[in-house]
Design goal:
Blueprint (H helix, E strand, L loop, with lengths): L7 E11 L2 E7 L2 H4 L7 E4 L2 E9 L2 E7 H6 L10 E6 L18 E9 L5 E6 L13 E4 L2 E9 L2 E6 L1 H6 L10 E6 L1 H15 L5
Antiparallel strand pairs: 1-2, 1-6, 2-5, 3-4, 3-6, 4-5, 7-8, 7-12, 8-11, 9-10, 9-12, 10-11
């Protein structure tokens, strides 16, 4: 599990592509290497990946076919930044909302507006996610726990403070960029349960 509080963004240091598999390499800062072992989980752009290899400060992650299909990790090239978060520990403060690192889909940046000391990013999403996105709800975007602003038909936006822009990759997003989306699991369970009960005529 992850808290949705991105710890840093790092450039992709190495990329090995094979048939239906990619290995991503990142140079981790010392504070993120503490206690890191093969088999540990790390969120890369909100995608839960397993440490496959450690080589000094370099950490390698294998990304399989399904993950490449669903997420934006298939679009990364050497030098491209990615949001990084180590897995949560029991003693950690949960400053965001719990994320599983299981990305549902990618959304496309429609616009980036920059009113003074703010940044508003609007995304387009597939119709299947409409029931789970509502104003002031939670959403995971590239591994960051964010509050949804306004929601329209196939569109929603988020408001970002300067600190978020400094730590994450969001400051580099442009129209057309693809961003990983994780729907809040509690919201999904509640909505799906109500839909099933309504379909069964159990809501009176």
């Amino acid at each position: 599990m992850f808290t949705g509080i991105v710890q840093c963004s790092l450039p992709l240091a190495g990329l090995e592509r094979k048939t239906n598999l990619s290995r991503l390499w990142f140079e981790m800062p010392p504070r993120l290497l503490d206690g890191l072992v093969s088999g540990a989980s790390v969120a890369v752009n909100g995608t839960c990946l397993t440490v496959a290899e450690l080589d000094g400060g370099r950490v390698g992650f294998d990304v399989m076919m399904e993950t490449l299909r669903v997420t934006n990790l298939s679009l990364l090239e050497v030098g491209d930044p990615a949001n990084i978060e180590r897995a949560a520990r029991f003693s950690d403060e949960i400053g965001g909302h719990l994320l599983s690192g299981h990305v549902h889909d990618t959304v496309e940046v429609v616009s980036v507006e920059r009113p003074e000391n703010n940044c508003v990013i609007t995304f387009a999403f597939s119709p299947q996610w409409q029931p789970y996105l509502f104003s002031k709800g939670y959403v995971g975007l590239n591994g960051a726990s964010l509050t949804v602003g306004e929601v329209g038909e196939g569109r929603f936006n988020v408001y970002l403070i300067p600190e978020t822009l400094k730590i994450t990759t969001f400051d580099q997003l442009r129209p057309g960029s693809r961003v990983n989306l994780e729907i809040d699991s509690q919201t999904q369970v509640i909505v799906d349960t109500v839909k099933r009960l309504a379909a069964a005529g159990s809501l009176g």
